[in-house]
Write a sequence for this structure.
């Protein structure tokens, strides 16, 4: 969350370098030692957290802890591997920048988090190539400090993120595209707020499940899209609600009309109790499934740690989901899903969609 504009993906490069060897193990030795315990070692870098770990047979847990500690505390960062790793990242960047969904997410996040690391999804190619071993070693020093003696260390303060609430329309031209990729959304309450769980229920009913209203409308009834979805995406002390869809180019405007129509319908009238109950059962079931694996449990604990939540967030989650009423759904929709504060990004054939998007200019009401 603290990467500067010059250092976008530095954490990714550092994570890759961590697995290239330690003072006592080569990269192949790390892989072989983990395989001998029935598993592997991985480094996963995210916007808020970098996770170093893996899964092995339970009897090898102490040895795995020692291996993870060696990777985290004693990397050698071989300069000879830097060109190869940067080439791998460059290929990943080129692929991502060719995909309309990624293009839409990049523009959406840049509009919502201007000037913050959360708004910088991809590096510039020249910035990626300019990353040096010294940059990664500076990150390495922070990792060593944090793991020194396995005691909790104080790291740099997270850069505060304030998401934009200004109505905005961003169009990314993709000439002759047969589909438009749409993302629209706005900042909402983060996981520390009392409305967060009701917000998750509202999201699942509106667009965040296969049985949601937006999915039923523009997929099942209208046939405008195959896989629309909405999510509540949480970061450190920040969260956003996002509705996404890939729609046929000539129904871009019509699709937006239906999406905003479903938002307004939910803001105006509580859903039937039976509809809400189905969504609550869905959320309770997916929550149980998420916690049915070791990785799922680890992810949940990481979520608690990141947001400073008590254990009761997990132990009481299903009960809080079940306690949400139809009236509360409408209250949440009115409070947080405000069309006049939304950022709308459309990636598509501009010469076809510009006219369709006129009703969604910032000066117009959807």
């Amino acid at each position: 969350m603290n990467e500067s504009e010059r250092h976008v993906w530095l954490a990714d490069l550092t994570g890759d370098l961590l697995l290239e060897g330690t003072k006592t193990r080569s990269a192949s030795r790390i892989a072989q030692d983990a395989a001998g315990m029935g598993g592997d070692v991985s480094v996963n870098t995210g916007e808020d957290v970098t996770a170093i770990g893996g899964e092995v047979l339970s009897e090898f847990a102490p040895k795995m802890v020692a291996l993870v500690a060696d990777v985290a505390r004693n990397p050698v960062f071989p300069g000879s591997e830097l060109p190869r790793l940067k080439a791998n990242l460059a290929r990943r960047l080129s692929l991502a920048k060719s995909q309309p969904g990624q293009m839409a997410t990049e523009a959406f996040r840049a509009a919502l988090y201007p000037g913050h690391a959360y708004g910088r999804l991809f590096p510039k190619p020249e910035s990626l190539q300019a990353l040096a071993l010294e940059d990664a070693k500076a990150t390495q020093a922070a990792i060593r400090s944090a793991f020194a003696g396995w005691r909790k260390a104080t790291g740099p303060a997270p850069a505060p993120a304030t998401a934009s609430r200004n109505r905005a329309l961003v169009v990314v031209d993709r000439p002759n595209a047969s589909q438009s990729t749409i993302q629209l959304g706005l900042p909402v309450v983060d996981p520390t707020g009392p409305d967060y769980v009701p917000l998750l229920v509202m999201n699942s009913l509106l667009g965040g499940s296969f049985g949601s209203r937006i999915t039923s409308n523009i997929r099942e009834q209208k046939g405008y899209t195959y896989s629309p979805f909405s999510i509540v995406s949480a970061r450190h002390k920040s969260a956003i609600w996002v509705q996404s869809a890939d729609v046929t180019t000539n129904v871009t405007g019509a699709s937006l009309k239906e999406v905003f129509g479903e938002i307004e319908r939910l803001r105006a009238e509580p859903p039937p109790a039976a509809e809400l109950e189905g969504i609550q059962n869905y959320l309770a079931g997916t929550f149980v499934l998420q916690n049915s694996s070791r990785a799922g449990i680890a992810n949940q604990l990481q979520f608690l740690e990141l947001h400073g939540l008590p254990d009761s967030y997990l132990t009481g989650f299903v009960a809080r989901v079940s306690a949400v009423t139809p009236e509360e759904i409408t209250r949440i929709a009115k409070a947080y899903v405000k069309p006049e504060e939304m950022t709308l990004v459309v990636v598509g054939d501009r010469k076809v969609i510009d006219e369709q998007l006129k009703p969604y200019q910032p000066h117009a009401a959807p």
Q: What stands out?
A: The CA atoms of residues 160 and 196 lie 20 Å apart. The radius of gyration is 23 Å. The beta strands are 40-45, 50-55, 168-173, 179-188, 229-235, 238-248, 343-348. The mean pLDDT is 92.
